[in-house]
């Protein structure tokens, strides 16, 4: 399992109801429903991923967050809304963040940290948009249209009165260490946040 | 005519009849003291009777869903693309039951059948049947076949409504339900189209209040018109355009008001005529009424999620982008209600150019979705063959 997912799974309480935005092939929900009696739905747009979720028996709903948003779900209809590695790819991440906290009291969000030192160094040295393991796209074909840093995200949470319950960062091997916990914005490659209202 | 039976076909099949001499009280209050249902089965029922799948037909469908009746058959059953060895409804794994609904005209008791109480055909006196009545009569067939529960109940369009009704009415007997290109209730526009179809039939001078049989005549012109209107709504503008465009039958315009000039006109005439030869007009009225009436939310002040509460199955809902008869937002309405009722549901909106008829056409994405879902259904079955 991807390391951000394996950290998230420890933050989800057994028996809760989860909505996973951009659920991919359903790995996280599959794990949560098998090991933690979690009930949930994934939203996804990739047809391959949807078929894979169906095979796994993960509830998957085809829905484009950019065009449809989340207005079809009622307030507080879930215990937890999760969004891994998708915040940076949506058109209005700030609106989506508010919507997530309308649907559930708590949210977990992971995204690639654009403040990571190697990315800063790449841009400074080459003068080109960084291409790395966590950001493997060139500027013109990237799905990531709203890249942000650890600091940017916290600033957004502050402005929107969103309370951060936990945060952590992992490196490209998906490990945490004391260094990246000490300087997360500089040394963390993937940011993982657990937030609430 | 199949020169050889394709390896992924269920092959030559023979319809069977189940006779019921048990009274069935219908939703309209009337009672049928006896009736028969015409059905076909494909594949084998396993030892613990856990691999049965029910196929519910759409408006003009019937029991012949897959395979051929003989080597002289020009076409296989109506859903042959999805039922057979290796197909999504895999007959190596599932025992498939498909029937002609009550009120139909393909062998099940309907308006053209003889009423045992009068010795004459029912005609317009055949009681109005609803989706609920169909599901109840299907449950009687399941009892007869000794099938305690369905691994899946599957249907497209009007068939999807039956699958939905099954899940609500007999939650213990349905493990999975696939509701394809369907809707939880018709829109005003849908009902309007149905009314145009009915009006076309009833205003045919040969209709005789539905007693055309007694006058040894037939409202074929009206039925043809009804089917032509229906057919337009089953296709999309794109698929009609692709098939016919504005192609002319002859090279030049004839400047006549009554000639069939465009290919699309000719096609509609052909479809309409063929249909009017094979379908009972009273049955068409009956089936469109069943469509109009279906609305499981009605008993719950319009709250669909409340109506869905009893259901225990896992749902698959599929819509098609160019279906304008039951467009994707009608399926989404259903999915939203299922989520609200905390039901297990997966939903796919399949990009297809084929309009409402897309549910009958094996496009890649559709088949992938269907295979994925049915593969998981098969895995759930204990001791699957």
From TrEMBL, chain A:
Protein name: Methionine biosynthesis protein MetW
Record organism: Hahella chejuensis (strain KCTC 2396)
Matches recorded under Pfam families: MetW (PF07021)
CDD domains referenced in this protein's UniProt entry, alphabetically: AdoMet_MTases (cd02440)
Highest taxon of source: Bacteria
InterPro entries named among the record's database cross-references: Methionine_synth_MetW, SAM-dependent_MTases_sf
